[in-house]
């Protein structure tokens, strides 16, 4: 079986340089890394994980934790897309990922306890709950971490610009001639829900729209059912809105179902716009106008932030805001 010594002999580089290249250290040039990695492929070298851990003092494993109140976890299209992007990026740097629960065998433990038990080098947390004590515990710890979809000054965070996205959504509807614009909001215990409602209210203020309180309804934790029920409330109003901005695509799809059931049509009677641009949004009837979150960029930045902490052996705070983009399809029309 080929060894690291064989790689060094073939390339002419020292064992130290070969090792640092294989472990993706930043002080090895791209040209040198390419020569070494090409040699690795050519002779079929496969590093032993135990030996590598002893050498680098790393487990080469990252923990993934989902803490969200809807209970869907990775099944949610947004979360799964972000984790897939994160996974691809960290795997290219030699890391495996494992999903951490609150159980070690039959014993109930905290997420942090499980992370320490597994000896992970870092943690990515996907959380919807703004004040979850488990999240706070993780962020207060010394374990390198990055949190998705949440703002904090205790840990590195990566999230979409939900505030600006809401302004885009309302401005789009306004440009189409709509003045009676309602909002099905995300739960106010979530950072995304807070920011999207804040952006909606700011846009309404900027555009001098007279929006009654009844036009803002609670949409819960971004589910189809919550969007459906929220839309039902709006349809029961004496003066219903001509357009609805839902704080998530699943809620928007639920809203469209409620509108269809009432005998009305989207967008002929009511325009609907969502937020996320999940994969199914382009296949709904009508195709959903929405605000796109760049899940690839969120995952890539989360990986970069976390790996930098691990490589620098320093847990630092950094907040990365990912831009969003309006995607116009068929569910909105000019009034």
Shape: elongated
Structural class: alpha/beta
Order of strands, widest sheet: 2-1-5-6-7-13
Determine the N-to-C terminus distance.
Answer: 71 Å
DSSP summary: helix tally? 12
Question: Which residues sit in consecutive blocks of at least 5 with pLDDT less than 50?
Answer: none
Largest sheet: 6 strands, parallel
Mean pLDDT: 88
The string of secondary-structure elements, in order, is: HHHHEHEEEHEHEEHEHEHEHEEHEE
Strand residue percentage: 15-25%
Relative helix content: 40-55%
| Total number of beta strands | 14
Radius of gyration, in Å, reads: 24 Å
SSE blueprint:
Blueprint: H1 4-11, H2 15-22, H3 30-43, H4 49-56, E1 61-67, H5 77-91, E2 96-99, E3 103-104, E4 107-108, H6 111-118, E5 122-127, H7 133-140, E6 145-148, E7 156-160, H8 162-175, E8 181-185, H9 191-206, E9 216-218, H10 224-235, E10 243-246, H11 249-261, E11 271-276, E12 289-293, H12 295-312, E13 319-322, E14 324-327
Parallel strand pairs: 1-2, 1-5, 5-6, 6-7, 7-13, 8-9, 8-10, 10-11, 11-12
Antiparallel strand pairs: 3-4, 12-14
Helix pairs in contact: 1-2, 1-3, 5-12, 8-9, 10-11
Structural notes for this entry:
This protein is of the alpha/beta class and 335 residues long. The protein contains twelve helices and 14 strands. The protein has helices spanning 4-11, 15-22, 30-43, 49-56, 77-91, 111-118, 133-140, 162-175, 191-206, 224-235, 249-261, 295-312, and strands spanning 61-67, 96-99, 103-104, 107-108, 122-127, 145-148, 156-160, 181-185, 216-218, 243-246, 271-276, 289-293, 319-322, 324-327. The strands form three sheets. A six-stranded parallel β-sheet has the order 2-1-5-6-7-13, with helices on both faces. Strands 9-8-10-11-12-14 form a six-stranded mixed β-sheet, sandwiched between helices. Strand 3 and strand 4 (107-108) form a beta hairpin. Helix 1 (4-11) crosses helix 2, helix 5 (77-91) packs across helix 12 and helix 10 crosses helix 11 (249-261). It is elongated.
């Amino acid at each position: 079986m080929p060894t690291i010594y064989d790689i060094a002999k073939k390339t002419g580089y020292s064992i130290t340089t070969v090792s640092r290249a294989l472990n993706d250290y930043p002080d090895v040039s791209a040209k040198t890394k390419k020569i070494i990695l090409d040699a690795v492929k050519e002779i079929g070298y496969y590093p032993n994980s135990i030996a590598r851990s002893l050498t680098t003092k790393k487990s080469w494993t990252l923990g993934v934790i989902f803490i969200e109140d809807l209970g869907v976890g990775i099944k949610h299209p947004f979360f799964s897309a972000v984790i897939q992007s994160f996974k691809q990026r960290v795997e290219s740097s030699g890391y495996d990922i494992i999903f951490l629960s609150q159980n070690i065998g039959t014993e109930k433990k905290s997420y942090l306890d499980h992370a320490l038990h597994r000896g992970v080098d870092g943690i990515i947390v996907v959380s919807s709950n703004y004040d979850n004590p488990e999240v706070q515990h993780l962020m207060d710890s010394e374990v390198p971490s990055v949190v998705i979809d949440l703002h904090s000054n205790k840990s590195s965070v990566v999230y979409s610009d939900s505030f600006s996205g809401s302004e885009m959504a309302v401005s789009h509807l306004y440009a189409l001639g709509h003045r009676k614009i309602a909002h099905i909001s995300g739960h106010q215990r979530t950072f995304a829900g807070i920011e999207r409602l804040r952006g909606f209210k700011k846009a309404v203020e900027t555009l001098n729209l007279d929006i009654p309180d009844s036009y803002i309804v609670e949409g819960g934790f971004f589910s189809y059912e919550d969007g459906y029920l929220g839309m039902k409330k709006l349809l029961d109003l004496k003066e219903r809105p001509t357009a609805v901005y839902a704080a998530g695509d699943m809620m928007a799809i639920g809203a469209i179902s409620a509108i269809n059931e009432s005998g009305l049509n989207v967008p002929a009677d009511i325009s609907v716009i969502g937020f996320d641009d999940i994969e199914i949004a382009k296949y709904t009837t009508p195709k959903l106008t929405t605000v796109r979150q760049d899940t690839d960029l969120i995952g890539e930045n989360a990986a970069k932030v976390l790996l930098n902490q691990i490589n620098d052996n320093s847990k630092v705070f950094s907040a990365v805001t990912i831009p969003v983009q309006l995607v116009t399809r068929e569910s909105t029309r000019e009034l």
